[in-house]
Amino acid sequence: MKSKISGTFILIQGTSLLKLVATILLFMLFIFSISGILTSLKPQYRLSSASVNHVSMNVNGDLLYQLMGWENHHFLTVKRDVNVPTLTNVVFKLSSNINLDDPRSLLGRELPGFYQFDGKILVAGEGTNYTNMPIESSPPNEIMKAEQEAALQNLEGIDKSPDENPSSTPGQTTGDRKVVYVYFSHNRESFLPYLKGVTDPNLANHSQINVTKIGDQLKSSLEDRGIGTFVDKTDIQGNLNKKGLKYTKSYQESRAVVQAAMASNRDLTYFFDIHRDSRRKKDTTISINGQSYARLAFVIGGKNPNYEKNAKLASKLHDLLQKKYKGLSRGVIVKSNNGNAVYNQNLSENAILIEFGGVDNTFDELNRSADALADVFSEYFWQAENVNQNVEQSTDKQ
């Protein structure tokens, strides 16, 4: 009888062990299956660190209090008149990367291409909202490969600087030092008023008449204010064509150019990547004191771990523009989930991408905006220089 009971007990133990092993195997199979599914998804569908970041930003004091209460029920004995998010909502946000308070997070998964408009408005300029943020368009592949160019028109006076550009000798100067570096990751972005027969914004590209001319005006205006500036007109798009690389590799190509410049000139401190928006005239033009200006937009790459420092510079320039040229700045936009989203800004805490106007703007408008930017930047620059000099003098005395 004892032997029968002992055998039954061993049989039960064996069955339990088999169930345990089977459960572990099934769990491991489940984990591997989930991992495989997640890694096979397209990038825009994957759970990323940005997803966790979005959720963590919503962990305010009330939610934190509730989370602590789930662990220690004594916290919940204190009555709090607040609406606390439920655990279900938090888990849903984290697992799906969908924020029910922001429809774009859902639509971006359902509408093709919609996720490209994702971004965060850090500082909103006048009239700026999520429907008219800067658009980074790409020329069709056949344009890139064949290097087709439109005939030019309206070129009279294109290289003439606006009369308001100051010519007086500045009271302060950087001397022989070049401290501002201007470059163009999309150097062939052009403007429809100068391209004969071209009406499609995506076709507004040209090897000669393009955003690089803004660099000439910006350099002239900055140096009139004593700030040494270097303009790099490396043909990034031409290099891509020669190497057989896609347009999306533009920032990779320009990065090497910027790094070489930094290595050869240690004085370079500020880095401006000049672009042209694809939006139309109503969003990119403003009248100030009876004159037409091309509006500016500051774009910051949110995938740069130190993007807050770049955003700080952009925000200060936006504020200065608001004081002296109200409405000229469209604001500061942080892009984290679309495009390059770094824009070489991890190379320096003083690196920003600036959208100058749009496809419909003229160089009269663009040059005025370059002068305005130089005006407020010089104010920021010399104030910062004076602060640094005072700090150095105080250090020397100590």
Characterization of this structure:
Pfam families: SpoIIP (PF07454). Keywords: Membrane, Transmembrane, Transmembrane helix. 44% of the residues lie in helices and 11% in strands. The chain contains 12 helices and 9 strands. The strands form 2 sheets. A 7-stranded mixed β-sheet has the order 1-8-7-9-4-2-3, sandwiched between helices. Strands 5-6 form a two-stranded antiparallel sheet. The termini are far apart. The model is unreliable at 42-46, 48-52 and 108-116 (pLDDT under 50).
- The residue-averaged pLDDT reads 77
- Number of E-state strands: 9
Counting copies of identical and different chains, the oligomeric state is: single chain
Distance between the termini: 95 Å
Strand numbers in spatial order across the main sheet: 1-8-7-9-4-2-3
SS-based structural class? alpha/beta
Percent range for helical residues?
Answer: 40-55%
Largest sheet descriptor? 7 strands, mixed
- Rg, alpha carbons: 28 Å
Beta-strand share of residues: 5-15%
Overall outline: globular
Number of helices: 12
Uncertain ranges: 42-46, 48-52, 108-116
Elements, N to C (H/E): HHHHHEHEHEHHEHEEEHEEH
Protein name: Stage II sporulation protein P
Transmembrane segments: 20-41
Keywords: Membrane, Transmembrane, Transmembrane helix
Organism: Neobacillus sedimentimangrovi
